[in-house]
Amino acid sequence: MKKVLATALALGLAVVAATPALAEGNKIGYTCMDGTNPFFVALEGAIREVVEANGDELISLDPQNSNETQISQIEDMISQGITALFVNPVDKDGIIAALDEVKAADIPMFGFDTEVADMSYLVTYAGSDNYNAGKVCGEDLVAKCPDGGPIIVLDSPTMQSVVDRTNGFLDAIEGKGFEVVAQIDCMGNQEQGNLNGTDALTAHPEAVAIFGGNDPTALGAYAAAEAAGSDCLIYGVDGSPDIKALIADGKVTGTGAQSPINIGKTIAELYYKWLDGEEVEDRYPIETFMINSDNIEEYNNGGWQ
């Protein structure tokens, strides 16, 4: 889908000038799955910087990983008169009911980081190459454990970004002698990564590696492995400052790095390009890459890359 605004342009500038979203000081909505996740803190800050530089206001609400809360908060933002919505779903399928209401209100939607089940709702989307972020972790594991072995996967099936990362990871290790002895939904958070990592290691102390679908999950898995006295390799996805510090200390193996700052800046700038009548593509992939002991000195700067 390409957004060309051909009709508006054909009708002339009077139509564009009459569009409510062109007025200064508009309210623009923002929702992400977990506003306390450092990744989304950085991403929201990047969006906010662009929005406020354009004289608009960003209304940011945190559903705390609850699909029901996210739907309710989106309804609230509609009632507040938002003119656009930046959206990252808690549940790619569950959010569709709310997107129907946004669409009915004629509010354009711009997706980031995690896809919704039906991408036709969105004007455009910017997000990491999540499949590659998992794939580079799997490739690193194969290089470090050429003989294979039992592994634990801590994923989150309702989060499309994590599903894509897990698929990339599993595809990279396929046929390399690895066996997934436990695959558990950790809802993308550190507490569940710790709890489920502990349970999985108790049942499978021989595990050679744990893959977490994001860095908070991997941080929980690291704590679980440390408490269990396990020397299994730990992988995450994000490239967060916390995980990079642990990689530098030799305590975590690696992370499939992404840039929340680039994602946030990209999707916000795409909104304003679209608003000005410029053509935008349906999606914009943001580069992902491996951070491990080989290159940690380049990236361990206390912030996001």
- Tally of domains: 2
| Extended strand count | 12
Main sheet characteristics:
6 strands, parallel
CATH topology of the largest domain: Rossmann fold
Query: Can you tell me the overall shape?
Result: elongated
Number of helices: 12
Topology as H/E string? HHEHEHEHEEHEHEHEHEHEHEEH
Give the C-level CATH assignment of the largest domain: Alpha Beta
Order of neighbouring strands in the sheet with most strands: 2-1-3-4-5-11
Structural class: alpha/beta
CATH homology superfamily of the largest domain = Response regulator
Portion in helices: 40-55%
CATH architecture of the largest domain: 3-Layer(aba) Sandwich
The residue ranges in which pLDDT falls below 50 over 5 or more consecutive positions are 1-23
Descriptive keywords:
305 residues, alpha/beta, Rossmann fold, six-stranded parallel β-sheet, six-stranded mixed β-sheet, 12 helices
Q: Overview of this structure, please?
A:
The structure is a single chain. With 305 residues, the protein is an alpha/beta fold. It has two domains: 6-128 and 260-286, Response regulator (Rossmann fold); 130-258 and 291-299, 3-Layer(aba) Sandwich (Rossmann fold), CATH 3.40.50. 44% of the residues lie in helices and 20% in strands. The chain is built from twelve helices and twelve strands. The strands form two sheets. Strands 2-1-3-4-5-11 form a six-stranded parallel sheet, sandwiched between helices. A six-stranded mixed sheet has the order 7-6-8-9-10-12, sandwiched between helices. The longest helix has 16 residues, at 38-53. The chain starts with 5 loop residues before the first helix and ends in a 6-residue tail after the last helix.
